[in-house]
Amino acid sequence: MLFGLGWPEVAIIIVVAIVIFGPKKIPELGNALGKTLRGFKEELNNPSEDNHPGEQQK
């Protein structure tokens, strides 16, 4: 499964997240995490012209 975790561990993590953040906050956190991961993935696939490997940064 995910990161070597089994279903019991995943269930415990979900229950703890609901207790800590509350059921109304979980979708907002998931949405923010998804946007962050999408942006990170896009930056890895299309690095900006500002950072060229091998060049010294000023």
Structure notes:
The structure is a single chain. The longest helix has 20 residues, at 26-45. This protein is an all-alpha fold. The chain has one domain (2-45): Single alpha-helices involved in coiled-coils or other helix-helix interfaces (Up-down Bundle). The model has no long low-confidence stretch (mean pLDDT 81). It has 2 helices and no strands. It has helices spanning 7-21, 26-45.
Q: How would you describe this structure in keywords?
A:
58 residues; mainly alpha; Single alpha-helices involved in coiled-coils or other helix-helix interfaces
In brief:
The protein is mainly alpha-helical and 58 residues long. Helix content is 60%, strand content 0%.
Number of helices: 2
The name of the CATH architecture is Up-down Bundle
Instruction: Indicate the structural class.
Output: mainly alpha
Low-confidence regions: none
CATH fold description: Single alpha-helices involved in coiled-coils or other helix-helix interfaces
Order of helices and strands: HH
Estimate percent helicity. 55-70%
- Total strand count, please? 0
Beta-strand content: under 5%
Instruction: Report Rg.
Output: 18 Å
Shape: elongated
